[in-house]
Amino acid sequence: MKLNTTLKTLLATAIAAFGLTACDNAGSAKQSAEKDIVAQIKEKGVIRIGVFGDKPPFGYVDANGKNQGFDVEIAKDIATALLGSPDKIEFVLTEAANRVEYLKSDKVDLVLANFTQTPARAEVVDFAAPYMNVALGVVSPKDAPITDVAQLKGKTLLVNKGTTAEAYFSKNHPDINLLKFDQNTETFDALKDGRGVALAHDNALLWAWAKENPTFDVAIGNLGPVENIAPAVRKGNASLLNEVNRLIAEFKANGKLKAAYQKTLVPVYGEKEDLLAK
Domain named Solute-binding protein family 3/N-terminal: which ranges (predicted)? Predict the structure, then answer.
């Protein structure tokens, strides 16, 4: 009986040790995979980058089915630096609400989708160095302008799910009714249809949209704190994070970031270089 007890104890100890070793090995394998992600991208010869498909001038699909916009130009520069060609990108169309999930589920390696850096988001993804500055704005019809947030009390404001506009108004103005949509096109169509008195989004996007829709005006141009737009990678993906940080710094120094701005944003905003992060 005593022998059996001893054997059981030894067996339990061995099983526990094996389990710990397996966990350690699994953890080491995961860390190794994260460390080697840049090498894996180079081996595959393609980088998967999440971009918007309906948010000009930052990320959109043109009439010929080509990805265009400011974020897309930066993506092409990153692909050229890593893989030698701007064509070695698999563009993955994303929406504001699924940018984090696409990174967590490994559907993309990198997100370049006008992604505002916030403390809450930084807990679940890793942001690289910022490349643009942004604040919130509110656009409304010119014949019924919203010039002050107080005018929105008890009324319907249109926002996109997963955006800083949704978070800001949910936290700071619970007395405003939010009507939420997944896609930008849906949200702006709702404004045109009169389903809300105004629409809140990044101010740079609203200025661009209002330019194309002159019966509307961004009567509130700067709301809340100025925040940064930055690339994002999966949490813990240190190798790609470090590489993107290096490249963003390089693009700021060699003029590639400014060239992307001049190609895609100057035709919309004019020379507003304060939009670019230093």
Answer: 46-268
CA-to-CA distance for 59 and 208, rounded, in angstroms?
12
The interaxial angle of helices 70-83 and 37-44, nearest 10 deg, is: 90
The pTM score is 0.76
**pLDDT mean values, one per 10 residues, the chain (278 residues):** 49 49 46 70 96 94 96 98 96 95 97 94 96 94 97 97 94 97 95 98 92 95 91 96 97 96 90 77
Nearest to 257 by CA among 69, 44, 70, 123: 70
The DSSP string of 145-199 is ---SGGGGTTSEEEEETTSHHHHHHHHH-TTSEEEEESSHHHHHHHHHTTSSSEE
Which of 3.90.180.10, 2.40.110.10, 3.40.50.1370, 3.40.190.10 would CATH assign to domain 38-131+230-269? 3.40.190.10
Residue pair 140/209 in contact by the 8 Å Cβ criterion: no
Q: What are the beta bridge partners of residue 51?
A: 93
Q: Are 146 and 138 in contact (CB under 8 A)?
A: yes
